[in-house]
Amino acid sequence: MSITVPAASLDHREDRNFTSFPNSSYIFPSDDREKERLRNQHFFWRRVFGGRILFAPIMLQPTDVVLESGAGSGIWLLDIAKEVPASVTLHGIDIESNLFPELHPENIHFSISSVTTLPHEWTNKFTLVHQRLLIGALKKSEWPTALQEIHRVLAPGGWVQLFESAGREAGPCLARMRAMASALYASRGQVGDIISRHLPLILPELGFINVTTEEREQPSGTWAGKEGIEGKKNIIDLYIAMKPAILKAGGFGIINSEQGYDDLLEALGKELDETMGAFQRACVVYAQKPVAVK
Q: Is 104 in contact with 79 (CB distance < 8 Å)?
């Protein structure tokens, strides 16, 4: 599909809040509506992966320390806190504090920071680092830096788990949406969900061992029953959240108005319902920092 970039942004009726973090390329809003989307997304993928949110082969001990990079609304930390001893220390960082929960257990701590420049005093600190869906946050050039920083702050023998989108397929409407999303990622120096295929190759180069990938596919659309309806909602909500950034970029020659975007979203919903085999896929890549680091 040929994509052109219009010179002017397209009008958008709805005001949404975005991060003001310096030099950020983050795509998604930072407001209550996005907080709710992230919550729904968390529980959707938890179900798809059999109720699991801890993938690395470890059992967290009372004195362990855990970091979530790109914590967003903190929903993963709030959930994992129910599964581990209350004495486990849980840290969440993000470039924006708007989404941090107002109420949380005392062992959870939130702070503003970027995974590309983690605090120096965190070297060899964490038993586990969790990071999820930063394809709309990190530039291609920032991924190696972020992973090197994660390697640095992991304790010897500690684990990282990286959860990313691995694509979705249906018909022509989804293809047009994916084309706009890909163009948006590229316009901000990002690589999109192709990163899921590169992570297993990058991690060993940065000193990680025992690299493992788990992948799950979720049918999406009413044809797939209750779980398919949840899958459809996850896809539609994602593209609703991307709407302001795509309109601001001018639609990339695929749509030329907000109404055009809304019409495409509506058509996408129908397409998912009517396309047997429509799906979305995600993967988790986890890896270990060697006990003896060279």
A: no
* pTM (2 d.p.): 0.93
Residue 23 confidence (pLDDT):
78
150-171 exposure pattern, b = at least 16 Cβ within 10 A, e = fewer: bbbbbbeebbbbbbbbbbbebb
172-187 and 258-274 helices, crossing angle to 10°? 130
Q: What is the pLDDT of residues 142-178, one digit of tens each?
A: 999 999 999 999 999 999 999 999 999 989 999 999 9
Query: Given the structure tokens 């004195």, which residue do they identify?
Result: 63
Task: Give the pairing of strands 89-94 and 154-169.
Answer: unpaired
In DSSP terms, 280 is beta-bridged to 168, 218
Alpha helices of the chain — where are they, by DSSP H?
A: 32-48, 75-80, 142-153, 172-187, 195-205, 225-248, 258-274
Count of C-beta atoms within a 10 Å radius of residue 105: 11
Where exactly are the structural domains of the chain? 32-288
Per the listing, tokens 């539609």 go with 236
Taking each helix axis as running N to C, give the angle between helix 225-248 and helix 172-187, from 0 to 180 degrees, rounded to the nearest 10: 40
SS3 content of the chain, % helix, strand, coil (to 5): 40, 20, 40
Return contacts of 12-17, CB within 8 angstroms, 24+ apart: 12/243, 12/244, 12/247, 12/248, 12/258, 13/258, 14/244, 16/244, 17/98
Query: Taking the CA atoms of the chain, what radius of gyration do you get in angstroms?
Result: 19
pLDDT at 225: 97
The answer to whether 135 touches 168, Cβ cutoff 8 Å, is no
Domain 32-288, classified CATH 3.40.50.150, yes or no: yes
